[in-house]
C-alpha cells in the first residue's frame, strides 16, 4: 500500500535543456551535443562531485575548462552562470501534487542538485507544494546510492515499502528498489496521471 510519494526533480518537475543552452551560447549544435554527452556520460565525475557538494561552482567551472580545452572558456563561464534557468517547469505536476495532497498523500523531494538549488527553487513553483526535501549537496550523498534513499526515509519518517519513488532515470529507479521503495519510471505528466488513476492512488482529477 502506498502512503506517500517521493519525487525526483529534473525530468519530473522540470525539463532539462542544457544542450539547448550550450547551443545558444556556442551557436553550434554539434559542439553543444558533444559537450552535453561528455559531461553527463557515466564516466564524467563532475556532475556527481558538484551535486554532492564536494566542489563549488567556481571549482566546477575550472575543472570543465581543463576537461574541454576545445571550448572557449567564456562559453563554459556562460553555461555555468545560466544553467539553473534552463529547466522549464511542467505545470501539470503542480496540479497532481495538490490532488495527491487532497487524497491524503504526503509528497517529498529527493534530488541530485548542487548548491544552486536555492536559486533554482525560485524558478520551480512545484517545490513549494511539497512536504519536505532532501537535496544531495547538503548531504554529501547522491542517487543512485542506497545511502541517500535511506537518509530520506529517516528524515521524513517514512517506510520505503509504503513509498512510491518517481524518477525519470533508470539507475535511480534501481537504487530506490535496492533501498526497498516501490518505484515508477517517469516519462510525462500525462503518463504519470494515467498510472495514478489505474492504480487507484487517485480516482478523480479536476
Describe this structure in words.
There is one protein chain. The chain folds into 2 domains: 122 residues, 3-Layer(aba) Sandwich (Rossmann fold); 68 residues. It has 10 helices and 5 strands; from the N terminus they run E-H-H-H-H-H-H-E-H-E-H-E-H-E-H. The protein has a 5-stranded parallel sheet with strand order 3-2-1-4-5. The longest helix is centred in the middle third of the chain and has 12 residues. The protein is globular, with a radius of gyration of 18 Å.
Give the arrangement of secondary structure elements.
Blueprint lengths: L3 E4 L10 H9 L2 H11 L6 H6 L5 H11 L5 H10 L8 H12 L3 E6 L5 H4 L12 E3 L10 H11 L6 E5 L2 H9 L3 E4 L3 H10 L8
Parallel strand pairs: 1-2, 1-4, 2-3, 4-5
Can you tag this structure with a few keywords?
206 residues, alpha/beta, Rossmann fold, five-stranded parallel β-sheet, 10 helices
- Percent of residues in helices comes to 40-55%
Strand order of the largest sheet: 3-2-1-4-5
CATH architecture classification name of the largest domain: 3-Layer(aba) Sandwich
Supply the CATH class of the largest domain: Alpha Beta
Shape: globular
> How many domains?
2
β-sheet strand percentage: 5-15%
Largest sheet: 5 strands, parallel
In whole angstroms, the N-to-C terminal distance is: 24 Å
Mean pLDDT value: 96
CATH homologous superfamily grouping of the largest domain: HAD superfamily/HAD-like
Radius of gyration: 18 Å
Q: What's the CATH topology name of the largest domain?
A: Rossmann fold
